[in-house]
């Protein structure tokens, strides 16, 4: 693929180059997204080995999909969807053997003010947060993982999950609110409002 030395190639150009056998283009695409794919898998599965396996499988699947991959498609969206599907397959296999470990404790990215999660981490109650997040509905867990492990915004998560942005916001708010209330009941954090005010609560249902 011919590239101008004065600018970085766009993702569409990298996809076209990778389809034509440009190994550098393929490596650039994967290096851009695979580290965050691994973080999502780690949060969904709570296992470094499984996260590594997921990252490798997503890489293999993407390489195989290149002949039919649209150059205007989002590689990130495709990778996260593929990763979540792989994680769910792994969780189903775990469930046949017994309870799975679920999400690890969440290391929150900086946000607009502290949330109940932040208080828990500050108090070194990671195991409690881990257990509480495991109790969330699966559809809420994936939103939490994409937001705090991959660092995606609401619109990006909505694209990955193919659902309205209001639904994503609702699931994220309810996840934070439920864990925060549970921590307060356990006396593990000071009473603190969720980062989403009551007036701004999403109205969409999951």
Task: Describe the overall structure.
The structure is a single chain. The chain has helices spanning 11-19, 23-45, 48-65, 75-97, 116-122, 126-134, 138-148, 154-161, 165-185. The protein contains nine helices and no strands. The chain is 63% helix and 0% strand. Mean pLDDT is 79; it is low at 100-112 and 191-201. The termini are far apart. It is mainly alpha-helical and 206 residues long.
Count of DSSP helices?
9
* Dominant shape: elongated
What is the helix fraction of residues, given as a range?
Answer: 55-70%
* End-to-end gap: 44 Å
Can you summarize the main beta sheet?
none
| Beta strands, count | 0
Mean pLDDT: 79
Uncertain segments:
100-112, 191-201
Structural class: mainly alpha
Q: In what range is the share of β-strand residues? A: under 5%
| Radius of gyration (Å) | 19 Å
Could you spell the SSE succession in H and E letters? Answer: HHHHHHHHH
Keywords for this entry:
206 residues; mainly alpha
In a few lines, what is going on in this structure?
With 206 residues, the protein is an all-alpha fold. It contains 9 helices and no strands.
């Amino acid at each position: 693929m011919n590239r101008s030395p004065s600018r970085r190639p766009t993702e569409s150009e990298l996809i076209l180059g990778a389809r034509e056998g440009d190994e550098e283009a393929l490596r650039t695409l994967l290096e851009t997204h695979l580290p965050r794919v691994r973080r999502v898998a780690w949060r969904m599965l709570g296992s470094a080995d499984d996260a590594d396996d997921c990252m490798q499988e997503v890489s293999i699947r993407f390489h195989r999909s290149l002949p039919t991959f649209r150059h205007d498609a989002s590689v990130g969206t495709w990778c996260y969807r593929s990763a979540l599907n792989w994680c769910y397959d792994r969780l189903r296999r775990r469930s046949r053997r017994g309870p799975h470990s679920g999400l690890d404790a969440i290391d929150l990215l900086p946000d607009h003010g502290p949330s109940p999660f932040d208080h828990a981490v500050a108090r070194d109650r990671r195991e409690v947060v881990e257990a509480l997040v495991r109790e969330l509905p699966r559809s809420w867990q994936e939103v939490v993982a994409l937001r705090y492990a991959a660092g995606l915004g609401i619109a990006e998560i909505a694209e990955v999950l193919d659902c309205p942005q209001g639904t994503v916001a609702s699931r994220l708010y309810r996840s934070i609110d439920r864990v925060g209330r549970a921590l307060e009941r356990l006396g593990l954090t000071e009473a603190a409002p969720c980062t989403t005010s009551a007036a701004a609560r999403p109205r969409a249902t999951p």
